[in-house]
Design goal:
Order of helices and strands: HHHHH
Largest sheet: none
Shape: elongated
CATH topology of the domain at 5-66: Arc Repressor Mutant, subunit A
Number of strands: 0
Distance between the termini: 98 Å
Radius of gyration: 30 Å
CATH class of the domain at 5-66: Mainly Alpha
Length: 138
């Protein structure tokens, strides 16, 4: 039995895994290799099985480690900005601000008011209609 399972990977599987390391989706890989996204997914699933990985990123990392390459990205961790701001201590992350003109809350309230007003108009029309009908049948 081989010590390195990545040696059993085909060239196509290796190509796909290298592109996964560059954060490419199956569709993007398919376009780059001129194959279907289904073929890309098949290659990646088989590669995951061969190297014993639970997901495509892990399989790509194992291939990179076997080939002696470092992943071309940093881990996803929060890194504080090197630029200090006078209005905020540097240890706090920046505040999430909404873009100008984003009035989602006002829009929701307006819809609620419109629905209630519509229901009141429908109820009033139904009430007037029933009263007129009762007068007509007398």
């Amino acid at each position: 039995m081989e010590a390195d399972p990545t040696a059993r990977l085909s060239d196509g599987q290796r190509q796909c895994l290298r592109m996964v390391l560059r954060h490419m989706s199956s569709k993007e890989i398919a376009r780059a290799l001129d194959i279907s996204p289904h073929t890309v997914d098949q290659r990646l699933r088989l590669a995951m099985t061969i190297v014993g990985a639970s997901n495509r990123i892990e399989a790509a990392r194992r291939l990179a480690a076997a080939e002696g390459e470092a992943p071309p990205y940093q881990p996803l961790t929060y890194q504080s900005s090197p630029i200090a701001r006078a209005d905020r201590p540097p240890s706090l992350p920046p505040l999430q601000s909404r873009p100008e003109g984003d009035h989602e809350g006002i829009r929701k309230v307006a819809w609620i008011v419109a629905i209630v007003a519509g229901a009141a108009i429908i109820f009033a029309a139904l009430f007037v209609g029933l009263n007129a009908l009762s007068e007509f049948t007398r």
